[in-house]
Predict the 3D structure of the following.
Amino acid sequence: MVTKNSHQSTEHTNRGETKSMNNTEPPQSEVMFSVIMPVYNHAAYLPEAIESVIGQTTEDWEMIIVDDGSTDESPAIARRFAQRDNRITVLSQKNSGPAKARNTALKQARGKWLAFIDSDDIYLPDALKNFAKNIAANPDASFFYGFRHRLNADGTRTELSGEFQDAPSGAVELFQRMYLSHLCVCWKKSLLDEVGGYDNSLRSCEDYELYLRMSLLTKFYPIGCATGWRRRHDKNLSKQTGESRWGEAEILRAFIDKRGGKDVVPSDIVSRRLGKLYYSSGRQYFKACEFRKAVKGLNESTKFVRRFKTTALNVLAHLLSPFGK
């Protein structure tokens, strides 16, 4: 479903989908930025997130919100904003995860540059303006990033300093640490022609997987400032679990083994990073009393790095396996 401005009527496409139309469509010319926002059951945070885009100090943007099958008031909230501002488009799909939602938006994007905000985060007013300034100053670059501050669950705010903000970074830095947040990045739409979009099969780390592929084609240029506030709450998809750490390790491993990463990332860095991630997966599973899965993660860790603490925790996980989940 597509929602734009007011005065809507309805038509059916030849695929049986429902599409909401209106009589005051915005012009279909290219804009500077397409701001992409997937949303799933974030009615409590969504208005503030959308308002932070509307409040940008540059106006050359469109916003594409994709509702990923929400069961709360999120779709209605998004539609109300679209009725007020014809730069906002609302699309709807069955719940398929944030990767599919972003890909849905990317197919509709008219911007030369793509920026992203999650439905529980907040842009700083000059976020897009700062991207635009850096784009103008670096005409050969295709990927820019800043950093984020933290909005804590209790409402307090923590200002953070950015990582790798002094010079362009790339595959080696990114393999060692995921420092590129959706809230902080802006990249040229033409990159899609070379790398494709997000992997629809991923429910987490889909951004990390995409940026790793991009790192083989482009450098990442820092803008040296924060772009927004990343909200922490009990439903964050990015919370660390045994499963999420395992998934992250598998994405990195596939980048090395199947995507060409081994040609650019030194083998000692690969071993340290994968050993640490698989250990972290095993440790998180252990804390959750999923001892058999803990053993699996710890066994993988020892294939890359052998450490006493890994061996000791593995032995304990084996012993406790009959009593775990």
About this structure: The first helix runs from residue 46 to 54. The longest strand covers residues 221-231.
